[in-house]
Amino acid sequence: MLFAFSIAPAGNGSDSVGEVVAEAVRVVRESGLPNETTSMFTTIESESWDEGMAVVKRAVEAVQAHAPRVSLVLKADIRPGHTGQLQAKVERVEAALEGK
Predict the structure, then answer these.
(1) pTM for this structure?
(2) Most buried one in 56, 69, 77, 99, CB count within 10 A?
C-alpha cells in the first residue's frame, strides 16, 4: 500500500514551515518503511492500512507539537499483495516514455 501525504503547520505566524515539516519527515524516516520525500509530498509504502496510517498519525502529531493547527492531504493506493510499488510504478512510466 502506498500513502502519499502532505502535512503543513498553520497558525504559528510564519510563512516558513520547513523546520516543522522536517519533524514529520523525521518520523517517516525513523519508521523504517520505504519512503520518498519530494517538494510537495512524502510517500511511504507499508504492508497494511494500520501500519501506514500509524506513521501518518505520528507525523501529524510531530507537526502538531509545533503548531496550533495542522493541514493533512492524504492519498492512498490500496492494493494488497503488491510490494515494491514505490519504485515499480515510476519504472513503468519511465519504460513507457522510452517506448518499451
Answers:
(1) 0.89
(2) 56
Q: Which of 79, 76, 28 is nearest to 54 (CA)?
A: 28
Describe the crossing of helices 18-31 and 49-64 by its angle, rounded to 10 degrees.
Answer: 150
pLDDT digits (tens, 9 = 90+) for 44-87: 999 999 999 999 999 999 999 999 999 999 999 998 888 999 99
Q: Report CA-CA distances (Å) from 23 to 30, 42, 85, 98.
A: 11, 12, 25, 38
Long-range contact set of residues 26-33: C-beta below 8 Å, sequence gap at least 24: 26/62, 27/55, 27/58, 27/59, 27/62, 28/55, 28/59, 31/55, 31/58
Domain boundaries, the chain: 2-97
Topology of the domain comprising 2-97: Alpha-Beta Plaits (3.30.70)
